[in-house]
Amino acid sequence: MDSISLIAMASVITAGLTIGIGAIGPALGEGRAVAQALTAIAQQPDESDTITRTLFVGLAMIESTAIYCFVVSMILLFANPFWDYVLSTVEG
Amino acid sequence: MDSISLIAMASVITAGLTIGIGAIGPALGEGRAVAQALTAIAQQPDESDTITRTLFVGLAMIESTAIYCFVVSMILLFANPFWDYVLSTVEG
Amino acid sequence: MDSISLIAMASVITAGLTIGIGAIGPALGEGRAVAQALTAIAQQPDESDTITRTLFVGLAMIESTAIYCFVVSMILLFANPFWDYVLSTVEG
Amino acid sequence: MDSISLIAMASVITAGLTIGIGAIGPALGEGRAVAQALTAIAQQPDESDTITRTLFVGLAMIESTAIYCFVVSMILLFANPFWDYVLSTVEG
Amino acid sequence: MDSISLIAMASVITAGLTIGIGAIGPALGEGRAVAQALTAIAQQPDESDTITRTLFVGLAMIESTAIYCFVVSMILLFANPFWDYVLSTVEG
Amino acid sequence: MDSISLIAMASVITAGLTIGIGAIGPALGEGRAVAQALTAIAQQPDESDTITRTLFVGLAMIESTAIYCFVVSMILLFANPFWDYVLSTVEG
Amino acid sequence: MDSISLIAMASVITAGLTIGIGAIGPALGEGRAVAQALTAIAQQPDESDTITRTLFVGLAMIESTAIYCFVVSMILLFANPFWDYVLSTVEG
Amino acid sequence: MDSISLIAMASVITAGLTIGIGAIGPALGEGRAVAQALTAIAQQPDESDTITRTLFVGLAMIESTAIYCFVVSMILLFANPFWDYVLSTVEG
Amino acid sequence: MDSISLIAMASVITAGLTIGIGAIGPALGEGRAVAQALTAIAQQPDESDTITRTLFVGLAMIESTAIYCFVVSMILLFANPFWDYVLSTVEG
Amino acid sequence: MDSISLIAMASVITAGLTIGIGAIGPALGEGRAVAQALTAIAQQPDESDTITRTLFVGLAMIESTAIYCFVVSMILLFANPFWDYVLSTVEG
Amino acid sequence: MDSISLIAMASVITAGLTIGIGAIGPALGEGRAVAQALTAIAQQPDESDTITRTLFVGLAMIESTAIYCFVVSMILLFANPFWDYVLSTVEG
Amino acid sequence: MDSISLIAMASVITAGLTIGIGAIGPALGEGRAVAQALTAIAQQPDESDTITRTLFVGLAMIESTAIYCFVVSMILLFANPFWDYVLSTVEG
Amino acid sequence: MDSISLIAMASVITAGLTIGIGAIGPALGEGRAVAQALTAIAQQPDESDTITRTLFVGLAMIESTAIYCFVVSMILLFANPFWDYVLSTVEG
Amino acid sequence: MDSISLIAMASVITAGLTIGIGAIGPALGEGRAVAQALTAIAQQPDESDTITRTLFVGLAMIESTAIYCFVVSMILLFANPFWDYVLSTVEG
């Protein structure tokens, strides 16, 4: 097993698991926030503007943690510094 | 075990697990949001338009985390940069 | 263990686990949504049309995550790019 | 350990685990839906037709995820493309 | 370890685990459905016919997932295609 | 490690684990059903006949999943087809 | 490691784990049923006969799953068919 | 590692784990039953005789699952048939 | 690794884990029972004698499962039959 | 790895894990009991003497399971019979 | 496996898992905070300014734990001191 | 790997895990007790003296289980009998 | 694998996991505290100053546990005493 | 792998895990206590002094378990007796 195979394997496996595991929390958190927003609108229809606005700001905050995971996953696939180094040593 | 086998195996296993694990959170989160939406409509039928619209925006946000996983899974299967590199070295 | 055995094994195991794990979340989420829909109908029979329509859109969204898993599972079994490559090298 | 043993073992184990794990979610989800349906009928007997119809559509959706698992399990046992290939190479 | 031992072991272990794991979900789901049915009958004795009928249809749906597991378990023990093939090669 | 030891070990371990794991779900499910039945009788003593009858049908359904496990466990101990084959090859 | 040691070890470990794991579910299920029975008696003292009788039938059903485990455990210790066979080959 | 060491080790480890794991369920189940009994007495002091009697019968049932584990544990330590056999072969 | 080391290690590890794991259940169960007893006394001070007496009988039952674990743990440390046998063979 | 190292390692690891795992249950159980005691005092200040006394007896019972673990941990560190034996053989 | 491969692999895997695991807690915590904020606005619309302001300060605190993980993940990928040292020894 | 390394490693790892695992239970238990104490004070301010005093006695009991873990952890680091023995044999 | 690789790998992996695992608890705890703070403000707007002040002190306490983890993580990356020692031996 | 590498690795890994795992419990416990404190202040603003004072004493108790973990973590990094000994033997 040479360096290229090892780093490629580790990158592939990690890229998938990062977004796979990292999607659980945001999805559950957003589900909870959306669910409560609907209850709140049903209880207080006159405030639906404030509720919706607060909901979207909150969803953006929660989505940000999923996006951190997606960014790391993309970096590992397409801008992986370790892979770039190993390629440069092979091709250099 | 040569590089091709190793990277192919890692890609296959990761592609499946990424979407397999990544589907749990969104499915549960969407189930919760839909369930609460139905309760909200039953409580406040007059607001069913606002509720449904907020629900669909929320579902789209939650679905997005599942789609991140699906995208990574597809990239691993059909646009895998490590696999492309290894193939190019073999065929080059 | 040659490449063919390894990739075949990995594909078989992953194809099964992907849909096996991936069915847990949608099934639970749909169960929750259906259960709440029935409660909502019982509370507000006059809105059963809106409730049922919203339920079916929601179920379709949740089912979509199960279908992502099923698609990946089928791809791994019948349109596996890694398997195709290995076969082509063997037969080529 | 030759290819035949390996692929046969992997298929046997995966076929069982796929349906074994995959039955947990649908069974729990259906149990929840049925339980809530009975509560709903008890609360609103006049709507038992709508409730029962919605329940059966919902159960069909949930059962579909169990059936995906069963289909993959059967494919692995009786229409396994990897097993077919290996047999063809042995007998060919 | 020859092929016969390996496939026999894998079949034995999988046959047991499939039904062992697969019995958890249906048993819990049916327990929930039966429990709620009894509550419903106590609340609305006049609807006990509708409730009982809906319960039995629901139990049949839930039991079906346990039966999928039992079927796969029996296939692995008594109609295992991989075992049949290996026996035929040994005896053939 | 010859075939006999391996298959015997696998059968012993699986026979125990099958019923061991498989007893958890039915026991919990039956406990829930019985518990709710008692609450229902306390709430509606006049319906105790209907409740008890529905309870026993439900318990029979739940017990059936435990019995599937027990049957597989007994088959593995006393009517194991793989063991029978291996014995026949040894003694034949 | 000869056959005798292996089968003896597997039998010892499985016999213990079977009843160890298998006792969790029945104990929790019976605890729930007994607890609810006491609540029911406190709510409806006049029905304590019906409640107690239903409780005992239910406990017998739940206990049966523990007894399945105990039976398998005893069979593995004192009537183990694999052990008997191995002994017969050694002593025969 | 001779047979004596192996079987002795397996017996020691299993004897401990059997009662260790097996004590969790009964202890939790009894705790629940006792807790509910006290609530029931506080609600309905006049029925404390019936409640206490039902509690003790229930505790005896639950304790029985712990005793099964203890019995198997003791058998493994002091009346272990496999150990007896191995000793007889050594000393015989 | 001679027999003495192996059996001593197994005994040490098992003795600790048995009481370590076995203390979780009784402690939680007793905590629940005590907690409910205090609530019951606060609700019905006049019955504090009956409640306290029932509590102590219940605690004794729950404590018994912890004591089973402690007994097995002590037997493994100070009256271990396997250790005694091995010592006798060494010293004999 | 000689006997001394092995038994010393096993003793060190087990001594720590025994009290580490064994502290979880009692701490949670006592936390629950204390929490409920405070609620009970707030509800029924006149019974604070009875409540406090019952609480302390209960805490002593729960603490006893932690003390069992601590005793075993101390025995393993400072009065370990297996370590004493091994030392005696080395120094003897 | 040389130092470069090892440290690169460890960095890749850790970078992914750190943010993957570290995103679960903040996402769930933020989801809970947002959900409760919407309920609070629905209950007390006049205080929506105070509630929103407190929510955003709280979200910032919770997000900070996700950012710690993201920072460590980025450091491991792009400013890894161990990788820098190893590169310097290779190139130096 | 000589005895010194092994015992030192085991001591280091165990010392950390003992207090790491052992801190979970007491922290959660104390959190629960404190939380309930504050509720109790809010409900019954006149009894805040009794409540606070009972709380502190309870916290001391719960803290004791954390202190057991800390003591064992410190013994393993600074008064480890096995380490002392090994050092004495090396230096002796 | 030389000392440098080993210690570097261990430091990288531990630095990530420490903050990754350590962020779960504080994030959930802070989420709970913030959520309850918003409910409290909605219930008692006049006390929003006291509530906000208590909330911030509490958040600081909870954040401190996350900061302990971050500090250890940073020490492992940038002020690791073991790494410093190993470098000094290599370069010295 | 020499002693220095082994002990350094074990210390690094344990130092991180100790505080990483040990931060979960206190953070959750403190979150619960703070959350309840805010509810209590909202219910009984006049007692906010007593509540805040009791909260801070309680937080200090809970924080103490996190500090135990931090102390052990720091000892392992900067005052590790085993590391000191090994260094003294190397340099001595």
TrEMBL record, chains A, B, C, D, E, F, G, H, I, J, K, L, M, N:
CDD domains referenced in this protein's UniProt entry, alphabetically: ATP-synt_Fo_c
MF terms (GO), sorted A to Z: lipid binding; proton-transporting ATP synthase activity, rotational mechanism
Bilayer topology annotation: Multi-pass membrane protein
Start and end residues of each V-ATPase proteolipid subunit C-like domain: 13-76
Keywords on record: ATP synthesis, Cell membrane, CF(0), Hydrogen ion transport, Ion transport, Lipid-binding, Membrane, Transmembrane, Transmembrane helix, Transport
Gene3D superfamilies linked to this entry: lithium bound rotor ring of v- atpase (1.20.120.610)
GO CC annotations, alphabetized: plasma membrane; proton-transporting ATP synthase complex; proton-transporting two-sector ATPase complex, proton-transporting domain
Segments traversing the membrane: 6-28, 55-79
Highest taxon in the source lineage: Bacteria
Site (Reversibly protonated during proton transport) residue list: 63
InterPro entries xrefs: Alt_ATP_synth_F0_Csu, ATP_synth_csu_bac/chlpt, ATP_synth_F0_csu, ATPase_proteolipid_c-like_dom, F/V-ATP_Csub_sf
Entry annotated with the keyword Flavoprotein: no
Compartment(s): Cell membrane; Membrane
Pfam family, one: ATP-synt_C
Its biological purpose: F(1)F(0) ATP synthase produces ATP from ADP in the presence of a proton or sodium gradient. F-type ATPases consist of two structural domains, F(1) containing the extramembraneous catalytic core and F(0) containing the membrane proton channel, linked together by a central stalk and a peripheral stalk. During catalysis, ATP synthesis in the catalytic domain of F(1) is coupled via a rotary mechanism of the central stalk subunits to proton translocation. Key component of the F(0) channel; it plays a direct role in translocation across the membrane. A homomeric c-ring of between 10-14 subunits forms the central stalk rotor element with the F(1) delta and epsilon subunits.
Similarity comment: Belongs to the ATPase C chain family.
Name of protein: ATP synthase subunit c
Organism of derivation: Kineobactrum sediminis
